[in-house]
Amino acid sequence: MKKIISFLLIIIVGGTMMSCDHLTDQMLMDKHFKGKHELRRFNVYNETTKQSYGSYFLILGSFASTETTQTKIRFCWKHPDGTFVFSEVSFDKIRVRIVNTDKPFIEFRIDKFDREMNNGVNVYLNKVEEALYWVDYVIINCKEEDFPADVNLKDLK
Fold first, then answer.
1. pTM exceeding the 0.85 threshold for the entire prediction
2. In this structure, are residues 117 and 123 in contact, taking their beta carbons and an 8 Å threshold?
C-alpha cells in the first residue's frame, strides 16, 4: 500500500512540475512579446552569403560556389521593461497593417510557440533573441503616410 501511495505521489508531483515548466515558458513569451510595442527604427537590407567548396584527387578536381541573398528587416522596439531591443527577422515574417495611430507600433504573433508547447516540447528561454525564434510573424502598425503605395507593374512580370 505504501508503494502505491508513493508512486501516486511521485506522479502527481512530477505532473505538477511539468505543467509549471510550460507555464513559466508561456509567461516568459508573454513577458517579451504580448501586447503593443513602440517601434523606433526600421531598416530593410539584403544579406548575401557566399559558399565555396571544392575537391580534388591527384591532378583532377572540381570547384563550385554559390551565392544567396536574403532580405532581412532590422528594427528597434520597446520592451515591456522600458528598454529598447534591436531585433532582426527575415522579410517573410513581416506584415503591415494600416491603422490610424500617432506612433507606429509592432505586435508579435507567437502561434508556433503555442503549438509546440501543446505538443510537449520543452523550451528554455533566457534571452529575447532566443525567444524571437518562436515568433511566427511581426505586424507593423502604421499610418498610410508611413507606408505609401509604390506599385510598379513592370517589376511584377
1. no
2. yes
